[in-house]
Amino acid sequence: MKEFFDIKDYCVIITGANRGLGKEMALAFADCGANVVITCRDLNSVAELVKVIEKKNVQVLPIKMDVRNEDEINQMVEDVMEKFGKIDVLVNNAAICQTVEVENMKTSDWNETIDVNLTGVFQVSKAVGRKMILRKKGSIINISSISGFIMNHPQKHTAYCVSKAGVIMLTKGMAAEWAEYNIRVNSVAPGYTTGGMAKPSVEEGGEMAERWRSLIPMHRFGKPGELSGILIYLASEASTYTTGATFLIDGGFTVW
Question: Is the pTM of this model over 0.85?
Answer without folding.
Answer: yes
